[in-house]
Amino acid sequence: MHLLIQAIILGVLTGGLYALMTSGLTLTFGTMRIINMAQGVFVVVGAYIAFTLFNYLHIDPFLSILISTPLMFGLGVTLQTFLLRPIRYDAHRLSLLMTWAMAIGIEGILSIFYGTDFRGIITSYQNTSVTVLGYQFPLVRVLAFALSVAVLIGMWLLLSRTKFGRAVRAVSQRESAAKLLGVNTDRTAALAFGVGAATAGAAGAMFGLVSSFDPASHYDLIGRLLAICVLGGLGSNAGAITGAVLLALSESLVQAEFSPAWSSLPFYILLVIVLIARPQGLFGVRSRGAI
Amino acid sequence: MTEAGAILEIDRLTKRFGGIVAVDGCSFRVHGGSITGLIGPNGSGKTTVLNMLSGYLARDAGVILFDGRPIPRPDPTVMYRRGMSRTFQRARVLPELDVLDNLLVAAPKRGFAVWGMSKANRATVDYAMHLLEEFRLIRLAEMKAGELSYGQQKLLEFAAVLMGQPRLVLLDEPTAGVNHVMVDLMTERIREFHATGMTFLVIEHNMEFVMGLCDPLVVLDHGKTLFAGAPAEVQSNQLVLDAYLGD
Amino acid sequence: MRQRLLERRGILIGAAVIVLLALFPLSGAQSWIVNIGIFTLMYAALGSAWNLIGGYTGYVSLGSVAFFGLGAYSLALTFQHVGVGDGFLPFALVPVIGIAVALISLPLGFIAFRTRGLPFIIVTISLVIILQYCALNLTAVTGGAPGLQVPQAPFPPGTYEEYFYWAMLTVFAVTLLACAYVKRSRLGLMMFAVREDEDKARGLGVATAVPKFAAFAGSAAFSAMAGAVWAYYLTTVYPQFAFDGEFLAMGIILVAYLGGIGTLWGPFVGALILTPAQQYFAYSLGGNQFYLVAYAAVFVAVMLFLPRGVVTTIGDRALRRHRRRISALEENGRQAEAVGDVAATG
Fold first, then answer.
1. Which class for B136: exposed (0-12), middle (13-18), buried (19 or more C-beta within 10 A)?
2. What DSSP assignment string belongs to A105-151?
3. Residue C344, pLDDT score
4. What CA–CA distance (Å, rounded) separates B115 from C214?
5. Residue A222: which of A87, A111, A104, A76 has the closest Cα?
6. Cα separation, A269 vs B199, whole angstroms
7. Do the strands B168-172 and B199-203 form a parallel or antiparallel pair, or are they unpaired?
8. Cβ <8 Å between C196 and B97
9. What is the b/e burial string over C114-127, where b = at least 16 CB atoms within 10 angstroms of the residue's CB?
10. How far apart are CA C204 and CA A254, in angstroms?
């Protein structure tokens, strides 16, 4: 029982981090109707930036997010402008390949600079835990959870209170109408992609603290992030958060009760069940094709 | 199907979208062999009713009887096979396929197997060519549907929904965005097919077109049937005038 | 009439190409070139198989890889305890594996087709991930990460590759024939209708489940057959290469795009351009990770500059030139008439 609750605690804490990683996907899907296959690699880039800043400049990973966020934002905007904007008009299929090409290219560049060995960010407080009611709360994960929640709230404020956020919501709902209302949809898309990359980068710094990583880690990550989105309902923030927590919980529980090797499987089984019962995902909307 | 029989009957049909009630206990009948007009101000629920009739939208409440038989779960394919077809407000064709193929796709299954080596049998192709001639599209038979003008696409869509020799055709604003030559062509074709026993339910805003072609008229307002009757009655009905002018 | 003549010409050209491909290994080409040929044909087959579901039916699927891997493991598992005899027995098993995997694909398709568009792509990606996962962890059955061994074929070293080349060519030819059949049949018309506007097609009485499942199962069958031949050729089946959602999946789609989706010969042309290039990159740059960057650069270049694919672009240009020539002739005709009139009255 103790083990079970411990696993649940860990699951929820990790879920927050996954939710942050997925939020960028939801944002990109909403504004550009594309799957960003490079979201995983953005996380990994964030991890490497934090790793570099920590190892060479001794900046704490959580603090380094202040530096990596604008960098990742810039990277996202640049990539969108030069690689995604030209193919905007056949976006659906080409963007899958294009973002995947970005991911592979960036993986290659990371491999050239950092090699293919696994890395990790080991801080002095790596193994510190806070103990509450007999349960362990690893400090790193608690901070990661808190920061993820903070950033998610920040994103929510951005989307609901700012002009940019209104533009994003307008484009997500009906792009043609948004254009007519004077929204610069190209710029909105670029900025949204940048924000998605920035949040992924922030998540990456924390990811590097809880997990070891190499340039190829993005592949595992993107698979899980995409599954989260489909389970929750593509384009739904509530869905992404729910899916993220479900994934993390199921992984944590299986890892504790059975073996780490099978930890991802129950989530995929859950995905299949949800798809059969409710193909649009938990929070998604089903359309039947009438105009 | 007798002259006086109702080929289509809806009773207290209801559809809600979130907080909005688009169709609110709507009831009316379409008599077999008629060209019935469905009119009403914008937002009165006409297209939503059409979507529910043709199997594209699930209803929240109410009964739909086609030929006396209730319509179960919404399924456009089932409705087509039962003899009801429809066009869309903004013409939908299959853009990358030839004009001819757009018609062959709509051919009923009986007559040849799915797995055969050809797209359609002789009789089907002949009928499709005949329809293309009737709609003055025969020159364009080998062009891609996406290359046609909007008016031509509307004609093509109309021709395609006739391939299955339906008993009831639902037309959603057939004259919208189309020049008067094509409107005349459509009117001719509707009258022609009507003479063979086909029933039409036509949503329209173009009053000249409706008054000259349809009888009876069903007027919707705010998702309910406001009035139904002959064109002359409708034109002089105070409720109808209020509905159109009041909004 | 003209249509039929064109078709007959197309069939003759197609047959000629296949015959030339078949004769290729006998031309004295070295083993490593035949090896590249095997992989080229493999990508051509996989690309054509993908075309059925992705190009014709419009459902972009990464699932070909899942079925490729299933085909590979099926062959390997079958020959764990059975000998390969004179070496041709595994080849005889390939069509059986194709049919078996096609049947397995039906319930999987049922789940996947609950979705469309982007969620559908993700579901197929998830399928590959789950299968790779199972292959890695069900070590009792699949041997896990170290891979599963297939007995080596007892072919003589000088001509060893040739038999695999012809086997892969057969898989490609069969796939191509299926695609050609689809293009001119009613089943194909139904697939195209689904691609163009699935809901409109339903409203026209098309039983959309039929073309969707046919395309999915057909694609699965041919991908599995390619996988089976590949397994036999490599003699070791590794989970991360059999269920390679990274390179193989994207490579298949890239090949189809480069050649031209929805065209018959597109995937073949795409494979012809891409596979030798890929092998070259791996060879000269494989040691360090420049290979990945180069691969990505090719992707990007194709999508920015040739988004409609080689075959489609060439086809379009030819059509435009043809139309321009016709209208020029017409124009000349009119001018001649005008001159003639003036001459007559003048």
1. middle
2. HHHHHHHHHH-SS-B----TTTT-EEEETTEEEEHHHHHHHHHHHHH
3. 44
4. 10
5. A104
6. 50
7. parallel
8. yes
9. bbbbbbbbbbbbbb
10. 48
Q: What is the pLDDT of residues A112-158, one digit of tens each?
A: 899 888 998 888 888 888 888 888 888 888 889 999 999 999 988 88
How close are the terminal C-alpha atoms of chain A, in Å? 53
- Which run of H or E residues covers position C185? none
| Alpha-carbon distances, residue C314 vs A279, B206, C299, C317 (angstroms) | 40, 46, 20, 5
Amino acid A287: pLDDT: 58
CB-count burial class (<10 Å; 0-12, 13-18, 19+) for A127: exposed
Bridge partners (DSSP) listed for residue A132: A135
Helical spans, DSSP H, in C243-309: 247-259, 266-285, 290-305
pLDDT at residue C115 tops 80: yes
CA distance C303 to A201: 26
Is beta strand B199-203 parallel, antiparallel or unpaired with respect to B6-17?
unpaired
Q: How distant, in Å, are the alpha carbons of A289, C127, C137, C149 from that of C146?
A: 48, 22, 11, 9
* Contact yes or no for B174/B156 (Cβ under 8 A): no
E strands along chain A, which residues? 129-132, 135-138
Is residue A202 very low, low, confident or very high in pLDDT (cuts 50, 70, 90)?
very high
Query: What is the length of chain A?
Result: 291
Of B76, B115, B160, the CB nearest to C187: B115
Residue of B76, B94, B96 with shortest CB distance to C202: B76
Residue C318: how many CB atoms within 10 A of its CB? 10
The encoded tokens of residue A106 equal 């960036």
Distance CA A60, CA A124 (A): 10
Whether residues A290 and B56 touch (CB distance < 8 A) is answered with: yes
Q: What is the ipTM of this complex?
A: 0.90
User: In chain C, what percentage of residues exceed pLDDT 90?
Assistant: 41
Which chain C residues have any C-beta within 8 angstroms of a chain A C-beta?
60, 111, 114-115, 117-119, 121-123, 125-126, 129-130, 133, 136-137, 198-200, 202, 245-246, 250, 253-254, 257, 288-297, 299-300, 303-304, 307
Output the CA angle A276-A278-A282, nearest 5 degrees: 130
Q: Which two tokens stand for residue B163?
A: 């391939």
Residue A84: which of A100, A70, A107 has the closest Cα?
A100
Q: Which whole-number Å values give the CA distances from A230 to A200, A226, B240, C125, in the listed order?
A: 18, 6, 48, 11
Q: Do C296 and A97 touch (CB under 8 A)?
A: no
CA atoms in the 13 A half-sphere facing the CB of C68? 31
For B70-83, what is each residue's pLDDT tens digit? 887 889 999 999 99
Q: How far apart are CA B123 and CA B133, in angstroms?
A: 15
- Interface probe for C, chosen from A90, A98, A221, A262 (most Cβ of C below 10 Å), is A98
Please indicate whether residue C345 or residue C45 has the higher confidence score (pLDDT). Answer: C45
pTM listed for this prediction: 0.89
SS3 C259: helix
Is B105–C207 a contact, with Cβ atoms under 8 angstroms apart?
no
Nearest alpha carbon to residue B111 among B160, B165, B192: B165
Structure tokens at B199: 């029933």
Report residue B79 as tokens: 């409705």
HSE (side-chain half, CA atoms, 13 Å) at A271 = 32
DSSP-assigned beta bridge partners for residue B14: B24, B61
Residues in chain B: 247
Closest Cα of chain B to A152: distance in Å? 27
**Res A35: pLDDT:** 86
* pLDDT for the residue B162: 94
